[in-house]
Amino acid sequence: MEIISINEFSDKKQFLDFDCGEPALNTYLRKYATQNERTGYGRTFLALENGRLIGFYTLVVSSMQRDGLQTNLIKRLPKYPVPCILIARLAVNKSDQKRKVGKQMLFDALRKAVHIADYCGVAMVAVESKPGAVEFYKAAGFESITDNGLVFAIHINAIISALAGQK
Description:
The protein is of the alpha+beta class. The chain has a single domain, classed as Gcn5-related N-acetyltransferase (GNAT) (Aminopeptidase, 3-Layer(aba) Sandwich), CATH 3.40.630.30. Helix content is 31%, strand content 28%. The protein has four helices and seven strands. The chain has helices spanning 23-39, 101-117, 134-139, 156-166, and strands at residues 5-8, 43-49, 52-64, 82-92, 124-128, 143-144, 151-155. A seven-stranded mixed β-sheet has the order 1-2-3-4-5-7-6, sandwiched between helices. The radius of gyration is 16 Å and the shape is globular.
């Protein structure tokens, strides 16, 4: 796998050529990512290769109601809304989807979540998956936490342990 650079968002980048195959994600990048950066509602990070946008992801601070979560993870969660980092968007350009760019971006997002957890309460990292990405998140250690099978989470301590094992 070639090394890509993951950079903070810049509204000076050209996003017109980006197409991940999911219209809602393409629209988010072109229409809303800049606005969310400006307002602080989300932070978008860009995966670039030789200056070409090949993927992006967005992180937000969130919480989830403990009631209704279906997972072994619940045993370790507080009995009030669970603080989490939400990977609100993660997309890879169609022409780059077989190159493990998504995996590289996901691990970058998890490293950032651990860093954030050094400064504020974070119990888990969560993601609302598209149906076609379910296996991607399962392979990364995420557990399905809702009845619909599309919301996944991983406990922050599991991420910390996994990253410590990589050093």
